[in-house]
Design goal:
The protein has 78 residues and is of the alpha/beta class. Helices cover 26% and strands 22% of the residues. The longest helix has 12 residues.
């Protein structure tokens, strides 16, 4: 597998505005993955502009709709 490219996946990331989360998002985007980030403030520019931003409440149905089509969840928030 060395040197071969893995398939592109759709990845949902929480905590993308933190130090670790921002690095994770940048690396995933550089690898060509589709990245969706959960944020409480989607209009702010704290998130890499190449990532899709969504805003939703943790315990509501809209969160589960966002996760439905994702291949991976990376949970960085506290």
């Amino acid at each position: 597998m060395c040197g071969s490219r893995l398939r592109t996946v759709k990845i949902f990331v929480t905590g993308a505005t933190g130090d670790v989360g921002a690095l994770v998002v940048r690396e995933l985007l550089e690898q060509g993955h589709e990245v969706i980030v959960l944020t409480r403030r989607p209009a702010e520019n704290e998130v890499n502009p190449a990532a899709q931003r969504v805003s939703c409440e943790w315990l509501r149905d809209d969160l589960f709709r966002q996760l439905k089509d994702c291949d991976v969840v990376v949970h960085n928030s506290v």
